[in-house]
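<instruction>
Derive structure tokens from the sequence

<record> Sequence and structure tokens follow
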Amino acid sequence: MLVGWVLPSLINVLILGFVVVPELSRFDALGAQAARSVIFGLLATAVLGLVLAALQTPLYRILEGYLGWPKWLARVRRRRHLARKHLLRNRLDAASLAGRERAGHLTEDERAALNAFRAHPVISRHLARDLRRGPVWFAVLDERLHRYPLDDGQVAPTRLGNAIRRFEEYGYDRYRLDSQVLWHELNAAVPEPVRKQTDEARMSVDFFICLLYGHLVVAGAAAVDLAVGAAVRPWLVTATMIGLLPLMVIWYRLAVVATDEWAGAVRAMVNLGRQPLAAALALTLPRTLDEERAMWRLLGELVSSGFRPGLSALDAYRADPGDAEDAPAPTPPAAGEGGQPGA
């Protein structure tokens, strides 16, 4: 709360006070009214930070493309991101095949695929440039590709939506463990270092999101200040409004990049939390991956949809009552921790 929402709110309140609010714009606060101005600033920071934190779910969903977007625009943006994902995949595949060709390891099928890439008007143009840039550039492309969900059906209309959706789908894609449905149970069962790592990773994304929306609030207040003619220095207010717009784009891009650490933390939570979660739910983790996927799928349906006759198949995975009693109790999350991985 302090780093993710209050600190960026303080930054925005300072911009608002010294640029938009007439009294502070004239620096009267540095005189006899300093105490009152400090109290005003602290209260405004606390209110803004708490309001944005309380509204974080809809604020995230707007930037993810799930809330407030016209259906036609969401469809267009989703198709565009789907095309970008496929292009990144094809560029990496083409570069890999070109490398194998240089080493003389191409099979006939791979040679045909490489020739098809070279005949493609878009991929062929990228292939020559990618090969000149070398392995480091391939790692950058791979990083961009991994900010998309594996399932094409999960692709969202925005970069942030895709960057978050990729780790929201991780547990279900690998183990059929729906981390969105079982998030609170999973968060309560994992070891404390894993839980803390996830909270700290999300904090960086929250920081940039709060900065972005705070800049939007300041820009709106500045526009009102200019419209009513109350600005003491109109040129400074206008310059601030113009300067905040590219900063909002920068904070958005940095929020997308910051999701990489968040994705790694959630991935670790799923991988390391499956065993303690199963034990806490009086279930025995099966020996085979196929059986484990079947168990988590049944459990997800039980939690999300309620009981139905077919879900009694979970009985095959239930632990002996004596074993469940001997299992160590999970450590509950500390106050203020344990938010869901995505909004």
Notes: The CA atoms of residues 181 and 304 lie 6 Å apart. The chain has 15 helices and no strands.
